[in-house]
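Hi R.,

Here's the chain you asked about this morning:
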Amino acid sequence: MTAPRPLHDRALDNLQFIRSTMERAGSFTAVPGWGMVVVGCTALAATWLAVRQSRDTDWLAVWLGEAVLGVVVGGAAMVQKARAANDPLLSGPGRRFGLSFLPPIVVGALLTIALHRAGLFALMPGVWLLLYGTAVATAGAFSVRIVPIMGVCFMVLGTVALFAPAGLWPWFMAAGFGGLNIVFGIIIARRYGG
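And here is the predicted structure, written out as tokens:
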């Protein structure tokens, strides 16, 4: 017969269980890892297609098409994961996640219009990476711990892209929207289920 576990040990176990339950209840866990991997792969294809464009406006059209595709794929994957986990999208952590994600994305869209009108295409990759990273980092405050880290990685890459030569555009886009989405998507899928 073994001695009963000390009350102190059982209390610590109970506190750890309560903390993890509260953290899950206050976190938006429907960030779709496999959806991010798919978006990363389509971004790599968009990079390949965009570098073959001879005009900056055609390059922009490719990436705007990729943005629409990314929203559709990512949104569908998020809805599917949320339904499977019984995680509400429009209330609680899901609502806070969306409301934190949206403002930097809207700012990115407005700046894209302004940069296009000014002919400053060289600034777009850095601005997009920075603002997408900001959206992910701020929304990630309501999600699992890896999400804000991903946002910071996008922000660092965007900062470097802002000051890099214009000829490196494709590689920053591929590294961020392709590579970072794939790497973090795999981590999220494996650690947090899909």
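One quick note: The chain has seven helices and no strands.

Cheers,
M.
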